Amino acid sequence: MEKVMNSPLILDGKKISEKIRGELRSNISEASREAGREPGLAVILVGSDPASEIYVRNKIKACEKVGIRSFSYKLAEGIRTEEIIELISELNAKEEVDGILVQLPLPPHIDQKEVISAISPSKDVDGFHPENMGRLLGGIEEGFVPCTPLGIDILLGEYGIELKGMDVTVVGAGFIVGRPLSALLLRRNATVTVCHIHTKDLAKFTSQADMVISATGVPHLIKSDMVREGAVVIDVGISRIGGKIVGDVEFESVSKKASAITPVPGGVGPMTVTALLMNTFKAFRIRTGIQSTSTINP
Ligand code: NAD
Asked: Are residues 159 and 235 in the same domain?
């Protein structure tokens, strides 16, 4: 008899995002009426990297749909660090702006650390300011958690996947995903292993994990012989091959072993944008003193 293949639970970030954004829309509408203005997000894009342009466009569109006003700043590639900081100072002081997002990566001549540090921590909805990163690492609940780790945490929560006590291997230790994600997982009482480009034997760590989360940008790095039967697999990677978007995980083969898996696209990507909307609404609520009526709060 033929073996009946496992069919894993698809962790549908698109569907969960739609649900959360629907709820957000009505909460924002109510809160905006109370505050006399809409929440505002300033988005700064430097240069014309095509992928960054798409991400920014998607974020602005998502804002519009839930009732967040966006302020878009497209700056020339050759701009100096000081000029970006000047704009950020103006936005820090601007009443209608609750959140400030600088689309990364910045061109190499820009001092990214200086730019991020110039954002007021109370408007740092991307959560990359050292103060917010420090809070995350220190296990302090206040502050903003970076959007991709937050989106993953919310997605797992929506599917009832309990992180407490789980062995989680994070592949990738980047500033945007791997590092803050590891800190968030630790906050959730998971046992966290972090692998990166210098890890000697990646499969040794992925194959014994209850959950593998990959955020490297290396297409199809995670193959089925690297994950154990029944593992939860979260694919953060986004790469473009021949016009097609692929993740870090070889979905076809890995999904036959996994108990739950995120697709690319439609998994972590939409959850990242949803987390940004939630963080912006949170900044607005803190700044206006309006209480949350939502069931999911970042
Ligand atoms: P990054 O370049 O800052 O970090 C990549 C990490 O992967 C590094 O720690 C590096 O050591 C590690 N790495 C690279 N090759 C490896 C290998 N062969 N084995 C093990 N580790 C390896 O990247 P990032 O900004 O953290 O982004 C990672 C990926 O996630 C990218 O594909 C990016 O596009 C994607 N991303 C997706 C979302 C989303 O919403 N889905 C959001 C942010 C980033």
From this structure: yes
